[in-house]
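Quick question about two entries, pasted in order.
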Amino acid sequence: MANKQRILVQAFARHLQAVEESMHQLIPAVERGAEVLLKALKRGNKILVCGNGGSAADSQHFAAELVGRYKSERRARAAIALTTDTSTLTSVGNDYGFERIFARQIEALGRAGDVLVALSTSGASKNVLAAVAQARKQKMKVVILTGAGGTLLAKKSDVAVVIPSRETARIQELHELVYHSWCEYIDAQHG
């Protein structure tokens, strides 16, 4: 096998290893997260999603799956990615600081019974920690997707799905698997 190809094969192997190592360990937390989301949607509440960098993209991806559709045709679900409004992000960042970009939106949009889904591979993002604090203040449920380093963030949640890895790419890949599984679960239960 050529050296260049070996790099690619190793990336796939690390992905498979991360899935194998975490699948049975994570399923109870993934199920609890799915139930929190499902209950909120059934009550007419909404899902607010946030994260930075690749997790910002995942926030948008997850919200889009809920508002649009995942697999089958069904009614839209109330979900908002707090990562998409550049005018709000830049004005709040400028006026209040980058740490408040999500918390300020939660203050405006979040209601008791809504759910914040916060993604942070490190679990140490100050703006995500502030978002969680604001959600708590507003009596929202908090579901966290993080990596092995995210224990501080995980302790502040109702449900934490902690990927047992410190490799950002593997954490992000498994986050996508988790929120896709939530979409399947919600679609199957909530029609």
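Here is the second entry:
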Amino acid sequence: MVEMKNNHCKICELIARRDAGLAPLWDNIHRTPFWDVVHSYNTSLPGWLVLVPRRHIEAVDELTDEEAVELGVFLRRVSGALKDVVGCAKTYVMQFAESAGHTHVHFHVVPRMADQPEERRATNIFGYLNVSEDERVSEERMNEIARQVRLLLTSSEP
């Protein structure tokens, strides 16, 4: 069961949907004891993944030692899988948890493609997020990426 500090946490709602087995593949790519990996639902950049702690916390210093250790390993594994799947040069990792309904800590793991336009590098990468519905990565494409990432993460588990 998800421990929620407030009743308006969109991320906790999504975790509860995963726990109930109701999430689509792109929103349930891989789960560990402490973390979920999902594809962002409101991006125009294929492969924009998000790592979410499975319990509600609002600051990184609230992570347990076990969650922090697993996060480090999981960030590396997810970044490697993303590199293999979408062919990015590297990944960006960001954490803010500031927008309304999204104060639950979460880490964006974003592919930075070799041919990424200069005006969409570094923090300008966020121009690919919160886009209109017709600009978003299709559910079919998100599921395709999810399947490939899931396969790589599952096959490399310790």
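Reply: The beta strands are 30-31, 35-39, 49-53, 90-94, 107-112. Helices lie at 10-19, 65-86, 139-155. Hope that helps.
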